[in-house]
Amino acid sequence: MGKIHGFYGGKFMPMHKGHLYCIDTAARMCDDVVVIMFINGDDELKILKTNHDEMLTVKSRIAQLEKVCALYPNVEFHIIDDNPLRGPDGEEDWDKETPLVRQYVPHMDYVYSSEPQYGEYFSRAYPEATHIIVDAERKTYPISGTMIRAMELLEDRQKWMV
């Protein structure tokens, strides 16, 4: 039997315990996992226009992910810049990401997320992979990047951060 390959991608704005849980789940299920942070996407640029928190900078997020991925010998980390991947309307185009992801993950058995709505895209982009939805209802870690960014107190944020 061959190796089992997994993929997990996101903005990680910021990296939090839910992301760690997903990476940990993938690392336990797969022989090799590729984690990709997508930068300069539409959502990120909109968030950064109004939120200048240090934890959201690309440099900070890279440091967070490098630290987490280093905990797992079977996990590697890469970055893909979405800025040049815009469609004619200027909007982010996930289909243009697919060949770049494939540079790092030519074959995957599993693609991980906590978002059931990504299933249609994943089926089209990675037809050989099974979409593993990790804690979609946020029962294990009832948090999201949106919730953390909305928290006013640093100690409240730090409770959920990695």
Give an overview of the whole structure:
The chain is of the alpha/beta class and 162 residues long. Helix content is 40%, strand content 18%. The chain has helices spanning 17-29, 42-50, 58-69, 94-104, 119-125, 145-150, 154-160; strands at residues 5-10, 32-39, 75-81, 110-113, 130-133. It has a five-stranded parallel beta sheet with strand order 3-2-1-4-5, sandwiched between helices. The radius of gyration is 15 Å and the shape is globular.
Please supply descriptive tags for the structure shown above.
40% helix; alpha/beta; 5 strands; 18% strand; 7 helices; 162 residues; five-stranded parallel sheet; Rossmann fold
Write the SSE topology.
Blueprint: E1 5-10, H1 17-29, E2 32-39, H2 42-50, H3 58-69, E3 75-81, H4 94-104, E4 110-113, H5 119-125, E5 130-133, H6 145-150, H7 154-160
Parallel strand pairs: 1-2, 1-4, 2-3, 4-5
Order of helices and strands, N to C?
EHEHHEHEHEHH
Instruction: Supply the helix-strand structural class.
Output: alpha/beta
Whole-number mean pLDDT? 93
What is the highest CATH level, the class? Alpha Beta
Query: Could you name the CATH topology?
Result: Rossmann fold
What are the low-pLDDT stretches, counting only 5+ consecutive residues below 50? none
* Tally of separate helices: 7
Strands in their spatial order, largest beta sheet: 3-2-1-4-5
- Give a short account of the largest sheet: 5 strands, parallel
**Proportion of residues in helical segments:** 40-55%
- CATH homologous superfamily designation: HUPs
State the end-to-end distance. Answer: 35 Å
Number of domains: 1
